[in-house]
Amino acid sequence: MTAAPYDPSSEGAQMNFREKMSYGDYLDLDRLLNAQAPRSSAHDELLFIIQHQTSELWMKLAIHEIKAATKAIHDDDLQPAFKMLTRVARIFEQLNNAWDVLRTMTPSEYTEFRSMLGESSGFQSFQYRAIEFLAGNRNLAMLRPHAHRPELVAALEEILQQPSLYDEALLLLSRRGFAIGADAERPNWRDRRDENPDVIEAWKIVYRAPQTHWEIYELAEKLVDFEDYFRRWRFNHVTTVERIIGLKTGTGGTSGVGYLRKMLDIVLFPELWKVRTEL
Description:
Blueprint: H1 23-27, H2 29-33, H3 45-74, H4 78-102, H5 107-111, H6 126-135, H7 150-160, H8 165-175, H9 197-208, H10 214-245, H11 257-263, H12 270-278
């Protein structure tokens, strides 16, 4: 005799949501799952859209965490900042893993719908730009792809008016008694900062005596973790693009792989990497 099918309601599971909030209601899944609108009949266009939409969702969370970590460092509340920065690194690990799915698409399959993209490109991602600005890579030329959306430019300008994540880490060094030269009194947060030998010396003191400066030492390693995963994401982006389109020009008008390779040379926290050579 076979057992009756298991009924979760027998143990109290809610089964009737006619007047209650369901899982789909809470997550607004009707809107989310109807946000994909392929412009062709190509099988792989849905993959392409979902890959980029989910990446933007993860970036939204990364922005949320970076902003909170920056404020926590400003407030000398470092333990929560460590947790947030660990989460940011894991977010970029998720973003890295997503390239593995996109790489299942071949050049032939991408060609079937590439023309549907017009001049749209990940190069134009507002959230990616926000992450770069929040971390400290403040290339003002990169405001221009968003000039057609004044509200986006205003949001980016608001970020540029405040110290970046790395700026706050350096200000923390100053508050803890480290001499960091010009970075202790920068008059303008908007412009890109120059690499500072005084900061290298400060990080050198921290790394030579981690037990004495444990909180700052741990913060330094959390920042390096973040940039480590961020670099892997950029590298995997280059590899994926080259695998799918070779050396073609990007849809947004960049040199494609050539442009992405230049981005690999950008360092978010330069003194934290340089200090390793000098220890």
